[in-house]
Amino acid sequence: MYVCSCFGVTEQQVRQHAATGACTPRQIASACKAGTDCGNCVRRIQALLGRGACPRRELIENGADPLASGRTSSGLPPADAEEDAAGPAALPEAA
Description:
The structure is a single chain. The chain is mainly alpha-helical and 95 residues long. The chain has one domain: BFD-like [2Fe-2S]-binding domain (Arc Repressor Mutant, subunit A), CATH 1.10.10.1100. Helix content is 47%, strand content 5%. It has a two-stranded antiparallel ribbon. It is elongated, with a radius of gyration of 15 Å. Keywords: 2Fe-2S, Electron transport, Iron, Iron-sulfur, Metal-binding, Transport. This is Bacterioferritin-associated ferredoxin.
């Protein structure tokens, strides 16, 4: 079944990207563009990822500590995770 009709991305493709480490809608978008045009599929992608399509989520739910490796629950280093949540960091102004 298609998840993203704009780019022809299927549920199976989202699951494959999740299996290779894309565990957020933003990471799925980077992998296959799903969710980057009209945005109607983002909630469906979130639902697929929330249903265990992401192997890292299973590790977290089973008690593995994602911070033990110096990474946050999103799989990014702490500084990158803050940027991921808030959007790109502002660039310093040129002097």
